[in-house]
Fold Glycine--tRNA ligase.
Amino acid sequence: MNSFFWFRLLHCHETLIDRNIVPLARLFYNSHRYKQVESSSEKDLSYRLKRKGHFGKKNRERISTYLYNMASPEIEKELAPLRAAVKEYGDLIRSLKEKDAPKTDVDRAVVELKARKKKLEERELALVPKNVSFFDRLKFEDLLKQRFFYDKSFAIYGGVAGLYDFGPMGCAMKANMINLWRNHFILEENMLEVDCSVLTPEAVLKASGHVDRFSDWMVKDLKTGECFRADHLIKNFAEKMCKDMKTPANVKDELKEVLMKLEGFNDADMHSVIVKHNIKSPITGNELSEPIAFNLMFPTVIGPTGDFKAYLRPETAQGIFVNFKRLLEFNQGKLPFAVAQIGSGFRNEISPRQGLIRLREFTMCEIEHFVDPNNKSHPKFELVKDYNLVLFTGCNQMDGMQAQTMSIGDAVAQKLVANETLGYYMVRVHKYLVRIGVDPQRLRFRQHMANEMAHYSCDCWDAEILTSCGWIECVGVADRACYDLVQHSKASGEKLVAEKVLSEPKIVQVVEAVPNKAAIGKIYKAEAKQILAKLEQLSAEEVEALEKQIISVGSTRLQYGNKEVELQKDHITVKRYEKKVYAEEFHPSVIEPSFGIGRIMYSVLEHSFRQREGDEQRLYFALRPIVAPIKCSILPISANLRFEPIMAAVRSELAKFSVSYRQDDSSGSLGRRYARTDAIGIPFGITIDFESEAEPWTVTLRYSITMEQIRLKVSDVGKTVADLSSEIMSWTEAQQTYPKFEQKSDS
Amino acid sequence: MNSFFWFRLLHCHETLIDRNIVPLARLFYNSHRYKQVESSSEKDLSYRLKRKGHFGKKNRERISTYLYNMASPEIEKELAPLRAAVKEYGDLIRSLKEKDAPKTDVDRAVVELKARKKKLEERELALVPKNVSFFDRLKFEDLLKQRFFYDKSFAIYGGVAGLYDFGPMGCAMKANMINLWRNHFILEENMLEVDCSVLTPEAVLKASGHVDRFSDWMVKDLKTGECFRADHLIKNFAEKMCKDMKTPANVKDELKEVLMKLEGFNDADMHSVIVKHNIKSPITGNELSEPIAFNLMFPTVIGPTGDFKAYLRPETAQGIFVNFKRLLEFNQGKLPFAVAQIGSGFRNEISPRQGLIRLREFTMCEIEHFVDPNNKSHPKFELVKDYNLVLFTGCNQMDGMQAQTMSIGDAVAQKLVANETLGYYMVRVHKYLVRIGVDPQRLRFRQHMANEMAHYSCDCWDAEILTSCGWIECVGVADRACYDLVQHSKASGEKLVAEKVLSEPKIVQVVEAVPNKAAIGKIYKAEAKQILAKLEQLSAEEVEALEKQIISVGSTRLQYGNKEVELQKDHITVKRYEKKVYAEEFHPSVIEPSFGIGRIMYSVLEHSFRQREGDEQRLYFALRPIVAPIKCSILPISANLRFEPIMAAVRSELAKFSVSYRQDDSSGSLGRRYARTDAIGIPFGITIDFESEAEPWTVTLRYSITMEQIRLKVSDVGKTVADLSSEIMSWTEAQQTYPKFEQKSDS
């Protein structure tokens, strides 16, 4: 259990204690990031909401306003007992911790706390009146598929679960999101960008903990060998039983209890549920194995011999850590600095569903911000301190309270958010998400509770976005402390440290094992280099232990890597001396914002899905111009050759400003063609009509969201659409510059 | 053997024959693309040149001018016998083909032809006087490593051959190259961009031919199991022996012969060399196995059961082919259209060396241009027809002639280049390469000879760039005909065709197997769908064959996918009728330009590597501003706090225009800091000096290539550097706008 986290829970109203003095050593293990960080609400709300078709469309604004106004007296009255039930356990946990109660007691209480939280959250969402919350997922997914935003990979071969191809629309939108990300983070924050290998040798991922711990529990059909993710299997079974009229009430209650607590279950817990309820393979009815850990990395081998094991990277972060030394050098040895990477990650999910939300191959954007562990302030924090975020703190969650709006300055001052750097990134993440089109009313930061935290993390806030699948974790902002650098230092024997000049020099006692290089070289030959490196790395205590052994038994054993050698008396001399040091070495801490591009894209698409007032069939995406896959359409009012010279002039104007366009000169009414371009989220439409031919040539420009139009010269159209697309100019500004065009009709 | 190619060779001086009538069916197999397409010169020149340190630096211009002027009488005199020797075999092959000689005879002659070509090319390069061709590869590689353009992946763990990480400089440069690629191709040519999965099921790559044929020959140490690429092993052995004074002259001659012909060797050829010269493992001296085929794809498995085999894609192209149907629909059913993809490819090379030139993981940019096989004209060809390219045609190669400069219009008119679309792309490729900084004097297009062509290709031109490793193939422009779409149609059962309206409707005789759906469904249940689909796909001949069987024996067997069913008499009825059809279906041809970004980047870096006149230590990269990783530096003349407000104003001006910069306010002379920024290819340097403080604030702007400076207002600096960086404005234009600044000294 991470004592740092508990420290915060216990003292979350005491703001004056310096948090940096708390030891970060005992990092709590948890299977892996993405899996853990899902809010409890997400998992079992998704199925419920899918059926009910919750949220969005017609009254999109109202739902989020509604959630904000939940504190209205009537609703609060209904929620009060549930809030109290959560708080009861929050208080219990605090007192258990104060009394230093056994870890198992605390863990059990946490599981119960989370179950109560889940009940509260479900009730909150259920209180949304049915008529304000309708989202037609079928129509939404249909439109995405039809217009090839994205779809299952290798569909003509039956498709592969968890793999998606982005078609022209999805690909362009993704490229725009990534470009904006690069500007917003790498350029504006002067980060170093790197691009590292996907293929990763086993040794690297052994050091990072992924080989041993990056896994999910699965059960196997004992006859066919078919595999199921254990928690999903139990969930599906329990849901089905709860719906079944024939299930006795007491069993239903028991299974509801299981559903509430499932997220906290380990293998033994799950096995006992499977045994107790006699759960069989849902496909064959055969017996199932006990839960077994299944590593989620894709294995492969490098080279022809077959014995160089490797994996596809499960995150891009490791590529940055192993390059730390070069990057620090590149930054002229100075801290802090941030390194970013955009690239693919791979996770061999046992049975992925949920489209872009759970993929086996996905695009990540990750930042590793290296910082002095004793000084996590940020030079630009002052500039953002008044920025408001919706924070769902660990305390709020334990007390059964709602998320609260708060300035980041206050949150850091009150130690709710661990440090300025974490806080600064939370603001930057928020700005980015809103800029690309996430509805700020459906965006919150939720702090991880202790048993959700990944094995390397000591504080973590997730940017969660509310979609029809519930709250989805889309960005994690974690303080990974120095976990990774320390692990790679140990495993590789390479020092991954920064240096800090001391305010005044200090005298240190050095105890050093000076090797007899000739003797060691003679015996160990090629191995000698590694042995010497290891000797150099030994701490004073370790050297003294070696010395003791040599004195007592005449030789000692030295471990390096996976190997061991025997060193004789004449192989080393122990030297003691005083040294004046002016600088000290330390492992930097890492603050890591990590973005799942697919999930964010899904959320943006859902938040932009619209229907024209009064016309159920006219569905479209109201995308921000800056992320829209194509910036404008070119539509001649009729398929007439006489328009070709004007269209050519328009195309060349657009090309001059690198504006992407789609020309639709097919037959069909203008209104129908508008509808077609609206459906792929094209924000601006250029129409050539009969008035266009009068010198100087003009065209009309239509904004898809409002359907308003202006008229402007062909020679102005490139720059205007470019400025509108990059959002240097707003539509309102364009309307002030150019005369309005009253269209005859939009159909 | 590809009859199309031979057709061209036989008739390469006859220009009036319509090439489209030649059947494309019998596509010749060749192991795989990148491997084959290396020019023969590349392979064995690389070692020679590495040692001699050929090409570049001081007199970079002269070497290419030199190569161009090789036709000078003295040199031509020396080359004449070698050219004649090549031509002799070129003529021989033509006459063999005319006489319909056995394929083995032709193949043998081709091997000899290539050996003679290689001898000629080596002589050509050797004739470059030593003093004009010096390229210091060590210094070049050192600078790249030191400034972290790129370096071995996982270096702290010892590194992995064939895997490289791009550091901040390399990554930014790569991103710029790709952005430009996207503008130059996707945007300007209105292509559809897609982004498909790397993980690819075995069935897909089985259909594409990669599972069976994408391999290299390797030999194993019979005791240790260590593997060597057979051709590399022989090459290294032969080279070593040839250098050895003790090797008898006749053996040397024999081995030189082997080196010349090695590229054309199959497994038996290589085995006989190994046996004859008693070649052993170079590491242990143990016996070696016979050459065995090693598939170059990285294998993995998807999902937990371990029986869903998959590979990492060896090229991005397949992702486009399997999405053909959706893409055609997206394009409203119209041909031609082009689809592009930018992404990673993976090849498990047996023993990669050569840095970025042979990688196990690499970035590709590929375009698949789908076109009617009977009309490969291009609407924009007219615009480029006068563009000159250096073409090294198959005929030139067979005749021992030099590459020749020719307009693409003439080349297509003379049928040297197969069609307008191929020619149009060659021009676009050339423009792109020159735009990003490839020296046009070291760039040529070489046509593939028949036995180099990949198994799917019917005509191919490589853009080859001359570097210190010889001519490197960086872009392949291939006509893949309809190979891939046909293969995937067959394997998936999905029709991957386009439709063409006939000029007049025609009457066709239909013979159809009408299934008894109820009966088939009852017996075959879930399988029924596939059976019905297969029945629908049968040709008239196949239906008649089934019918015959049913009549004679009462039942028939139908194969679908890997399975087979028995159909009884009452399962199908054969129906015959006439049908008037207005359109016909066909498999489109594909023209594919395929870019290896790593190789191109390497070439650009080599072509930009410079040394300051008179100062051997001042090495730098003269990169085009548009690809430069960082656009400008900010250098205060001294580390003085009073400059901070001006620097802040400069930074904010730059940010306004999204210009990347690097600030260097470390101590050290200005000259030294300039040198540091020059070394990472920063084209523009902004200096704040004591004059800067006079209102309105000004700065100096320095261009790294010429070291000239101008002085301009801080308020102008953002727009100016942005325009210079995007090459909207040239340095000369900037000099005309702003006053010259005479610096005191650059050191």
